[in-house]
Amino acid sequence: MNASERGKMASVSTSLLESQINCRPSRGHCVYFIGIGGIGMSAVARILIHEGCIVAGSDLRTSSLTSTLEEMGAKINTKQDGSFMSSETDMVVVSASISEDNLDLKTARKMGIKVVKYSQILGSLMKEKRGIAISGTHGKTTTSAMISTILKTAGLDPTFVIGGEVPDIGGNAHLGKGNLFVAEACEYDRSFLNLTPQVGVITNIEEDHLDYYGNIETIVHAFGDFASSISKEGLLVVNDNDNNIAAAVQKANCKVETYSLSNASDWYGEVLSGGSGLKRFRVLHNGKLFDEISLKIPGSHNVLNALAATAVCTFIGVDKDSIKNALSLFHGANRRFQIIGARNGITVIDDYAHHPTEIRVTLRAARELYPEKRIWCVFQPHQYSRTRHLLKEFSRSFQNANRVILADIYATRDNDYEKTAMNAMKLYEETRNTGMDIQYIPQLSDIVNVLYSGVRPGDIVMTMGAGDVWKVAYDLVSRF
């Protein structure tokens, strides 16, 4: 590379750095969100509204999130055809799922409006405070919600952006007056590398988002880069029983603390009771008793999430009584083992699980909570590519259910090849071959009809998926 080429490369690097630095809107700026109904996008939009920005945006689907934003003054449309893009717009924010052929995005670029990624603007917000970033294939939302709940209960008034609505603390976002910023850090598109946290968490690392990463080695490498992004004076809290994490943390330059349900870890959780599905456990820190904690939410995976939250908040300086009390009152995030209703002796639960591991641990928690009851699992696969890459794993994830109903695949970010290469019938056949009692019912409205006529008192109905399968849970409760 000659001097001229090196100069051009340096110029590009400098411009990219300046782009990250200059993506912070100020009071009075007009900010347009493409995909504003996304859980992370809506959270940042809420924060900017509170800061005095003028917020508008588009999303193909309306939801409670978009309704809340409209109540706060945001102008939202569902066309995404470029017609709503104002010449007064100062900045456009896009989620990772927005492609370059999106008409809103094309219009913004044609008009010369500055375009930034959601993760960039999230990173710019975090730089102004003491950042706490929670990453991992699973458990990010619950762990982020636990940490935010503890900090808020302790009177530290954190700012937070969470990938799920948490009713106990006012939703999925809050602009706090304190110096702490809690953010759920998504690994897709290496988005979490735009953050500059002082404290980080890695809950686990598994194969996911293979449409972007391709293989587990690339995923581990990205998490390694995330580990190296934690400031040297900070802390990285990691699951001790994950070989992929063990490889990733080799890049960390900060103090690392481990947690697990085995006593070799820095933070060790010893489950004392859980016959009812709800967990009481003893926490040991470096071999010494920290305290006993009880959780209202079921599952050993949530004990692990609570250990991570305890480690982070102890490092921040929260006393153990505040941690214990906050966790004992924690009711969880929406769409995380959320009981939608109980009618005629039938309990209907909704969960966001859309990865084989998430399905497996959630159904295991349900079986612990309801050992003698018949469990129906209504699963809507999320993405053709994820279903194709993890087909075998999905087929073996339903073992704690008595009956499974499979809906059509919810498409997002899928190209034509993926839609041709995979379909829900293939997952149905693979699952049926494992011996599961499974039905394939493509349409959600038909699923509600089948459930209404098939369930009986004492049954448990669980809807699972990252798409719109939650509608089945609400419609079924309404029918009852």
TrEMBL record:
Example GO biological process: cell wall organization
Residues engaged in binding ATP: G136, T137, H138, G139, K140, T141, T142
Entries under InterPro entries matching the protein: Mur-like_cat_sf, Mur_ligase_C, Mur_ligase_C_dom_sf, Mur_ligase_cen, Mur_ligase_N, MurCDEF_pg_biosynth, UDP-N-AcMur_Ala_ligase_MurC
Protein name in UniProt: UDP-N-acetylmuramate--L-alanine ligase
GO cellular component: cytoplasm
Gene that specifies this protein: murC
Main location: cytoplasm
Homology family: Belongs to the MurCDEF family.
Catalytic activity as recorded in UniProt: UDP-N-acetyl-alpha-D-muramate + L-alanine + ATP = UDP-N-acetyl-alpha-D-muramoyl-L-alanine + ADP + phosphate + H(+)
Domain Mur ligase central as annotated: residue spans: 134-313
Enzyme Commission number: 6.3.2.8
Subcellular location per the Swiss-Prot or TrEMBL entry: Cytoplasm
UniProt entry keywords in alphabetical sequence: ATP-binding, Cell cycle, Cell division, Cell shape, Cell wall biogenesis/degradation, Cytoplasm, Ligase, Membrane, Nucleotide-binding, Peptidoglycan synthesis, Transmembrane, Transmembrane helix
Pathways involved: Cell wall biogenesis; peptidoglycan biosynthesis
Pfam families: Mur_ligase, Mur_ligase_C, Mur_ligase_M
SUPFAM superfamilies per record: MurCD N-terminal domain, MurD-like peptide ligases, catalytic domain, MurD-like peptide ligases, peptide-binding domain
